[in-house]
Amino acid sequence: MALKDVGNKVPIYKLKTTDEVMRYYDEWGEKDKYNRDMVEWNYTGPKETVEVIKKYLVNKETLFFDAGCGTGLVGLQLKKFGYKNFHGADLSQKLLDTVPKNLYQKLFKIDLNKRIEVSDNLYDSVMCVGTFTFGHVKSDALDEFVRITKPGGLICFTINEGIYKDYGFDKKISNLKANHKWIEMQFFKSDYIASKDVNAWLGLYKVK
């Protein structure tokens, strides 16, 4: 089956390096263009992931780490359901500057391809939506997510279908299961950005 040519519809998918991605997002964040594009594109990733994870998280005091939080779209969705404790991290300071005030208790500018400078077992849940995609964060970040999540905590993420095998996410997910690091709760194909014909795998895992 031929691969979808999504690069012509979502130009950032053509970028290769971390610096290129950071510069693109910094420009994209100007004058609220990123948020306006997400609405125009019918980007459903944040809504879908929150709809999935909220079924398993009764405690509204849950402490979330929003990895690749961008402008805070995941945090806004979580807030709708009464959750209120969020830490967010992103590569682009420009996007972080546009996050609604008082939505996140902490915001970090970090490269998620590197070690996350927080202690082990800190978070009740990690969310990573729209970050596992072309030229962005690689599969080794999942090891870090497991490390910073409490035993019994949840990790919920999307992976662009175009990189699932090419970037080794299929092997990483299988290895984490085989090594008893986490248990699969849900894993399915989502529409993600339906207007651009972009699909993603949506996964929910419980840390052991």
What does this structure look like?
- By secondary structure, the protein is an alpha/beta fold.
- Mean pLDDT is 89; it is low at 1-9.
- The chain has 7 helices and 7 strands, in the order αααβαβαββαβαββ.
- Helix 3 packs across helix 4.
- A 7-stranded mixed sheet has the order 3-2-1-4-5-7-6, sandwiched between helices.
- Helix 4 (73-80) links the parallel strand 1 and strand 2 (85-90).
- It starts with 17 loop residues before the first helix and ends with a strand.
- It has helices at residues 18-28, 33-41, 45-53, 73-80, 93-96, 141-148, 169-178; strands at residues 63-67, 85-90, 106-109, 123-132, 149-160, 182-193, 198-207.
- 28% of the residues lie in helices and 28% in strands.
- The chain has one domain (15-158, 183-207): 3-Layer(aba) Sandwich (Rossmann fold), CATH 3.40.50.150.
According to CATH, what is the class? Alpha Beta
What is the average per-residue confidence, as pLDDT, rounded to a whole number?
89
**General shape:** globular
- Largest beta sheet: strand ordering: 3-2-1-4-5-7-6
Proportion in β-strands: 25-35%
In short:
The chain is α/β, with parallel strands linked by helices and 208 residues long.
Question: Which structural traits does this protein have?
Answer:
alpha/beta, 208 residues, seven-stranded mixed beta sheet, 7 helices
Topology readout:
Elements: H1 18-28, H2 33-41, H3 45-53, E1 63-67, H4 73-80, E2 85-90, H5 93-96, E3 106-109, E4 123-132, H6 141-148, E5 149-160, H7 169-178, E6 182-193, E7 198-207
Parallel strand pairs: 1-2, 1-4, 2-3, 4-5
Antiparallel strand pairs: 5-7, 6-7
